[in-house]
Amino acid sequence: xRTILTICAAFLILSSQAFAAPKSxxxxxxxxxxxxxxxxxxHSHWQKILDKYLLEKGQHNLFNYNSVSPTDKALLSQxxxxxxxxxxxxxxxxxxxxYWVNLYNALTVQLILDEYPVKSITKLGGxxxxxxxxxxxxxxxxxxxxxxxxxxxxxxxxxxxxxxxxAVNCASLGCPNLATTAFSAxxxxxxxxxxxxxxxxxxKGASIDGNTLTLSxxxxxxxxxxxxxxxEILKTIDRYRDGSKLEGWKGKIKYDYDWSLNQP
Length: 264
Hints:
The chain is an alpha+beta fold. Helices cover 42% and strands 12% of the residues.
């Protein structure tokens, strides 16, 4: 009985913490590049998957996991195999950025497909885990990688760009949308700008109801990437908003996030 109570207590503690956002913590071995290499990665297989199964509906881009054929599951697997067989450090920094974003997003889709049907990505992972983010999901240049490694030990510390949070997708309705176009060295800036604009102007990014401003929990979890305090974070959000500006807000601020699967 004591063992069961101990396990239950641990589960309650984990649940109360919900999503503990990792800090940006550079993994130094990945902070290298070859700017003289003009070669590019082939993301065409990933684009085929996006074209076929990603649907734009209102403020959401929804992935039709239920309809993915065995052939296209194999195509996604082959894309990931091809991508992880290459060492991104041999390519330019611009190519690397697209590499890591596409790898993260494609791996996330594969994780959902492997366990589908599932109501939320938070249901994946080991016992007492809140999602699969600390599970080994790929091996690149002999190094085992988790999704958290890609986002918080590579992308965030190397590029220091808050818009990264609009680019990586966690297969949830509350998340910034999975882009309909695969990232590349040539379109990353445009896609980042479009993603930032789309999210900050959506209700899941920021919404006002009377005296209450509801922001995405992203601005709570990763607030340090958007500003040093609440008003600075609001100013950063305002850069992309078309409607009412948020800086100077004096009402109540709360945070929310919908972990439901991003499916039709």
